[in-house]
Model the fold of this input.
Amino acid sequence: PIHWTDAQLAETRYPALQSAVAMQRKLWSSHHASVAAAATAMAGKVDESASPLLPPTPEEMRWALSCVRSRAFSGPVTGTLKGAAAQLGFAGLLGVASILSGVLQPQQAVDGVSVVAVSVVFSDVIASRFARGKRHVLCPYLDMLNHASSA
Done:
C-alpha cells in the first residue's frame, strides 16, 4: 500500500491502513533525508579515485527499502531455553577441547564459558523481558534460492 496513490488509499475506506501508510511514508522520507545528508557530507571525503558518492533519489530509496522489507523476517526479542542450553553446551565443549589441546589454561576456558553464560542469561532471560523491539533478520542465501534462475 505504500506505493498506492492517495486516491487508491482513500478507496479502501480504512482509516487504520491510511494512517499506517502515512506514518511509513513519513519514516521513509526521514530515512531518505538522513542517507542523503550522510552521502552529501561524505562527498568530499571519499577516495579521489572512487566515483563520487551521490545520494539516492527518493525513488531509489523507496525501491531499496521495499526490497529489504520484502526479504526481512522479524519477531519479538526472545530466547528459548533450548537455544540457551545449546549455546552453553557448545561453549563448554569448546572450553574442554581448548584445555585438553593445550590452547588455553583452565582458568582462561572457565572465563570464556562464564562470559558466554552471562551473555546468554542477560540477552535471553533479562533483556528479552524488557525489550519492546523486534529482531530483524535478512536471509540473502534463502532469498537467492527462492529466486534462483534455474528453478
